Amino acid sequence: MSNSIIKIEQLTKSFPIGKSSFTALKGVDLVINEGEFCGLIGPSGSGKTTLLNIVGSLDVPTEGSAEVLGQSIGDLTPRQAAKLRKEQLGFIFQSYNLLAVHTVFENVEFPLLLLDYTASERKKMVMDALEWVGLTDKVNSRPPTLSGGESQRVAIARAMVKKPSLVLADEPTANLDAANSHHILQTMESLNKELKTTFLFATHDEKVISYLRRKIFLIDGMIDKDEIVTPTREVKV
Question: The pTM is what?
Answer without folding.
Answer: 0.92
